[in-house]
Amino acid sequence: MNAPPFSPQWLWWLAAGFGVWCSALAALYALHGIGCAFAWSAGPLRIGLAALLLAHLTVIGWLWRDLAAANPDPGFGQTGIFLHAVAIWTLMAALATTILTLGPPLLLTICV
Amino acid sequence: MSVSDGLTPQGSAALRLHRQLAAIWATGPGMQRLAAVNHSVVGLRFMATAFVFFGIGGILGMLTRVQLATPDATFMDPETYNQVFTMHGSMMLFLFAIPMVEGMAIYLTPKILGARDLAFPRLSAYGYWCYLFGGTILTAALVAGVAPNSGWFMYTPLSSNVYTPGINADVWLLGVTFVEISALTLAVELVVSILKLRAPGMSLDRMPIFGWYMLVTALMMVVAFPPLILGSILLETERAFGLPFFDPTRGGDPLLWQHLFWLFGHPDVYIIFLPMAGVLSTMIPVFASRPLIGYRAIVVAIIALAFVSFGIWVHHMFTVGIPHLALAFFSAGTAIVAVPTAVQVFAWLATLAHGRPHWDVPMLYVFGFFVIFVIGGLTGVMLSIVPFDWQVHNTYFVVAHFHYVTAGAAAFPLLAALYYWLPLLTGRAAVHRLSVPAFWLVFVGFNLTFFLMHLVGLLGMPRRIYTYQGYEGWTWLNLLSSVGGFIMTIGFGLVVIDLLAQLRFGRRVRRDPWGAATLEWAMPIPPAPYAFASLPQVTTRADRIAPGALAPSLARGDGYLGFARNGWQETLGVHVVSGAPEQLIVLSRATYLPLFTAFATAAAVLAMLFHFYLGALAMTVLTISLFVSAGQRAGLARDYGPMPIGHGVSVPPHTEAADPPPWLALIWTLVADGTLFTSLVFGTFYLWISAPNWPPAMALEPSRPLALVAVAALALAAAAARGSLRALAGGGAVRGWIGLALLALFAAIATTVALIGGVTPHPRAHALGATAAALLFYVALHAGIGLFFLVSNLLRLGAGFVSPQRTTDLRLTRLWLDYTLWTGAVALGLVLALPGLAAMLEARP
């Protein structure tokens, strides 16, 4: 038949990058909402948001580096190569999405 | 049947196999049709019913155009107009677009992926009946003059008791929720089927792109529908019992409804678009005479699209007063979602540019799709820019935009798909004399109707007004728009006539008339109820096969499962990634149970609608009991061990496999359930920081000991479920462990109910009490459903359906009770934390 089966759990890699993007969006939106509701000072709130964004970018970057460093197992054949490539592309796309959607807004006025 | 060449030995073998399989798989005549569970029958029913609702919704749309064609029109009074436009939107979205997509998915997915049916045929049938009954309730309300009248998105407080005291909003909340249950069941069914029920050898990289689109769409449905289901439950609870989740005078917030609605509503656009994009990605290579360009890039694009589409719901709420910084997150996200969409559009264009395209009727609609969807997409990018959105918010510009997007995304590819796949159903293709003018009437009429709405919107015409005075400069645009609407309707009328005429006068075609390269054309025309007489071995990309060459060998039984056995409806379960055959899946036969269960569910909905709450409770229990009853006949009553499936391969039946379809189904059901729970937690926090009139005058004082007892009882139940599995493996007292779990769950329910009884402020007095009660009710409900799992375990143990080799029942119960424990701990912890959170608000400047 095919190459030896590998774990279906590996498929979570396909969702990893954008999963982190979702987490970043939810975390930043929540922190911003809480900060504004409790009238936190603009400076610390902005720094908190930037730190949160940076943490998420680091996670995606780390995932990307980790996966790119690991070549697909030749035993998994074309399926492994395909899934490996798709996972790396989604991580790259997620990194770009995170930077573009969540980075520039942090320069705007904070709670107006 | 195409296997009628029975004079040759090979032909007679095919005919014999066909007769054996047809006897097992066919739906009976007469009343037995009501027991049908076959995916072809259910899929066609979905599509036919969706078309009926499309017709009704279309007529309602035309009524609104008649009303708006001239100023000061008295064709409809305001109340009738409100009901008509609300039902037009609700029907087109909930009763046409989504079910039509589901119907196509049900009908086509097994055929394209090389399976004989979906994983849970009875669930498909139940989903259909729920859809039909839910849609009927909505339509009956329209006839009775009590249809929903608050707009298709039911914004609070307009839809709350104060402003909509009749049953109009209840009809929407209950009827649409009923239909959503149907959608959710089918989503779970599709996810499991695509992951497990493919042709042997069809690894994920060999799966036709249609399979990827359907998989991602079904996963989106699993996550998208629960927030709206929760919102509907909360709003219905507010309307029926006075719990003020959305009432700002009692600590609720109307904007919470908008968040919950659009958490569903925006992804829903892509839930409609992605299957249609799958259709386009399947058809365009056929008409371009070359494989699809960018298969891998498209897979990445649809994964990206699925996620990003969830993260932009707030762009529907740009004017509600959210700070600029937060708006910018969603503005940027909305603009960037165009990128993965564009990747697909460019892949299709590149496929056409590098191929040798030829025209036929389906391609006309593909052309129409490109024009309309690109216009709709571009106006979407315009609307993503916050200042522009503020200018045109709530005007007809938005109406024009979403008609371009939804109609472009749904209607044109859908009609292309109909013309493309109708030869599979009928063996005939369209007669161009009628099809071509029908297309141009639809295309011209559509653009005349909706393009002008951009202009009238820019001139300031608000949505949902039932008339205007005539001095505003909108009159001619509205008149022309209405004329366009009638031209489009005539076009759709011609399409219907054309399709019906095709049944009798269409050009006769042989198998695979378009020269396609996917598996659905490697079967008899029209498809037999068993789809494939034997299952193909896939050795290359499954959208690059030669159906004409493959079909005869499959019909002869040369593939897997090319025989009938024990009167079983058999198909194969494969490894999720590699497609290697793993298990023999024995599917359930035709039964009236889905119909009766849907009747019970409908009775519960109607009892709720008419405030007969005890009746609703009884019918809900009956519905769950019928599900338990359905479970009693599922599976096999003894161990079989590995069984031959052909080609010298033997696999165990699914009842003895490690990850049978029910296991995966429960996992994805819990993902949906977890999304609902997360939405409830989000709602609690949202009210905490955003709602007016917080904190309440009276503090919440939940009993900490009772909460700890409840968590301990849930933990004991989960541990007992593990004990039952160990006892099964070791020959111990399985029933004893199950009994212990039952007692623990009763204790958990009792303590949780006691906690609900002690909630202060009273759940009707303030949203703090209402959210605490909702969280506690969630725990009690799940513990209660756990009781049904355990009772089912006892019954099936007694009937011999559980053995050390067949442990699925007990594993399902363990999974459910684990989930109940973890969500219970979070819910009870949050309830205990609420007093502290409320106190924090007092320190707020």
Shape of chain B: globular
Largest sheet of chain A: none
Strand content of chain A: under 5%
Largest interface, with Cβ-Cβ < 8 Å? Answer: A-B, 49 and 42 residues
- In terms of per-residue confidence, which ranges of chain B show pLDDT below 50 for 5 or more consecutive residues? 1-6
Q: How many domains in all of chain A?
A: 1
Q: Whole-number radius of gyration of chain A? A: 18 Å
The overall number of domains of chain B is 3
Q: If you average the pLDDT of chain A, what whole number results?
A: 91
Radius of gyration of chain B: 27 Å
Largest sheet strand order of chain B: 1-2
Relative strand content of chain B: under 5%
- Largest sheet data of chain B: 2 strands, antiparallel
Explain this structure.
- The complex is a heterodimer of chains A (112) and B (845).
- Chain A is mostly helical and 112 residues long.
- Chain A has one domain (19-107).
- Chain A is built from three helices and no strands.
- Chain A starts with 11 loop residues before the first helix and ends in a 10-residue tail after the last helix.
- The model of chain A has no long low-confidence stretch (mean pLDDT 91).
- Chain B is mainly α and 845 residues long.
- Chain B folds into three domains: 37-245 and 566-659, Up-down Bundle (Cytochrome C Oxidase, Chain A), CATH 1.20.210; 263-509, Cytochrome c oxidase-like, subunit I domain (Cytochrome C Oxidase, Chain A, Up-down Bundle), CATH 1.20.210.10; 686-842, Cytochrome c oxidase, subunit III, four-helix bundle (Four Helix Bundle (Hemerythrin (Met), subunit A), Up-down Bundle).
- Mean pLDDT of chain B is 93; it is low at 1-6.
- The radius of gyration of chain B is 27 Å and the shape is globular.
- Classes of the chains: A mainly alpha (112), B mainly alpha (845).
- At the A-B interface, helix 1 and helix 3 of A face helix 8, helix 9 and helix 19 of B.
